[in-house]
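Quick check before the chapter quiz. The format below is the same one you will see on the exam, so make sure you can read both the input and the output lines.
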Amino acid sequence: MKRFKFTLDKVLEVRRIKEKEKQRHLAEALRILENETKKFEQLNKQKENSWLILETLIKTNVDPAIITMAYKGLDGQQTLTQLQDEKVTEAENKFNLKRQELIDIQRKKKILEKLREKQYKDFLNEMEKVEQKFIDEIAVIKTGRKFLNKDLL
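Here is the expected output.
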């Protein structure tokens, strides 16, 4: 009995390897996104704390020069927060791109897997037909021998 051979097995294997690679890339992009988001949240907390300190300084009638320095520090934190927000947006875009790449390669792999399944079903049907034909031939030969044996007796 002949064995099933899918002609695109090598291509399917390459797609599986690429899928694993894309999954690793997606996991890395997610890790980066989570880190950048965490940094953004930390900067926001620092900024909120700085606002509270600035409000306290204003209420306690501290030297205006100190208030000005605190405000400039707060302004610098605002700039850092904006830059970090841009990094988060960039990381989100990279994550979405990697996710789309993974989805695309999964679709391509799925198409080949379905084609393989269909060809395997066709192969099984063909083998069943061959087997049935063989069984029919044996039955015909057996029946022919019975008639031949009756004629000889």
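If your answer matched, good. The radius of gyration is 36 Å.
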